[in-house]
């Protein structure tokens, strides 16, 4: 790796690198081949392709839609900045409360089931190869009865997967390039980026920091982080995440009823991301299928990642009710099944053994303990920022604290916190223009690191 001058931040920007960096005016280094250039020589962090010159190029043109992406995916960009910071301060005790990756060990009741499955694979009796693409029946049944009991969902509506993010992309493949989408603004970046890649959008509009042809549903403290649907244009697909990443806000029953009615009125499909449902403290719906009529307009995607520490193991699921039909009456689930069979060969059998263990009484208790640990972290972070006089949102129903820095650029705040406290956060603008002026602090961390980070925040903002 090149040696980076001390006063520069290495962003290692390759082709199509930075929606989120676009407005960032800090001292930034742009790498063209192996040369590190301070941003002042290139203007502010310009989002231009800088292809390496090679002796040979193929005759294959680059996917035009991928070329529209203005940014490296947000979290790799945050990770790159952390790496650059470590190069600058090799002795710094950097604490990461940024990316939202889990840190606590997977409970043994779950790993022992996976170990048993792994060992069984080395016996004739216990070996299994490709499994059902949709997931093993007992796991589909266990997910159905644990999370969707009495909601009219059946085990064969549940498709087990290698994670919610992967399912979001597979759903986009099902929808194709001719649909329009709406997203909460701010929102988890996978919805917008997969939409761009599928060709559902126009170009990135630098002035408003949005892609054309996407409906950005503004979620702010003023509207309680629930969009004013009377101002939202009709789209085919509505991505909606509750509890939300990054704001931590969860939608109430009344709000979700409005959303379902809105979708029904417009003939839209909701893709409801409930990856954090088990973090909910308020008595709000944990599934969109708790709302009457949702089965005709909604898909739900969920994950073991943040419940059981499965971010690396990889296991999630998507529910597509039989009642959900395309305009020609064809069941959406049948097309999803086709994509799953074509693009995916089913989740790992070891992961699925872990998933089944998660849903035993002991496993559920163990997951609640993991979640409780992170919720305690969330409380510590919330209390810290509240005591410092900040307006703080989220936290109660999700492992994210959404902190307002009015009038400041999110990337500037991110950089200042990193520079002065060696703590990695996530800049709110990385989740969409509605996140500008906010920073997300994740509660995924070892307790001593969270406590230490909060001590440093108190020093910085006292
Ligand atoms: C809202 C949301 N959906 C989906 C995911 C991805 O989940 P998985 O690890 O199951 O792919 C995340 C991960 O951070 C998330 O925040």
Question: What would you say this structure looks like, in words?
Answer:
Keywords: Aminotransferase, Pyridoxal phosphate, Transferase. One of its GO terms (biological process) is systemic acquired resistance, salicylic acid mediated signaling pathway. Residues 93-457 form the Aminotransferase class I/classII large domain. Belongs to the class-I pyridoxal-phosphate-dependent aminotransferase family. LL-diaminopimelate aminotransferase subfamily. This protein is of the alpha/beta class and 462 residues long. It has three domains: 1-53, no CATH class; 73-104 and 366-461, Aspartate Aminotransferase, domain 1; 108-362, Aspartate Aminotransferase, domain 2 (3-Layer(aba) Sandwich), CATH 3.40.640. It is 33% helix and 14% strand. It is built from twelve helices and 17 strands. It has helices at 74-88, 108-120, 137-147, 164-175, 190-198, 253-266, 305-308, 332-343, 349-358, 361-387, 410-421, 447-461, and strands spanning 29-32, 35-38, 95-96, 158-161, 181-185, 204-205, 210-211, 214-218, 237-241, 269-273, 298-303, 316-319, 392-394, 400-404, 423-424, 426-427, 438-442. The strands form five sheets. Strands 4-12-11-10-9-5-8 form a seven-stranded mixed β-sheet, with helices on both faces. The protein has a four-stranded antiparallel β-sheet with strand order 13-14-17-16. A two-stranded antiparallel sheet has the order 1-2. Strand 1 (29-32) and strand 2 (35-38) form a beta hairpin. The two termini are 38 Å apart. Residues 1-49 have low confidence and may be disordered. Residues 100, 163-166, 188, 241, 245, 273, 275, 303, 305, 311, 316 line the site of pyridoxal-5'-phosphate.
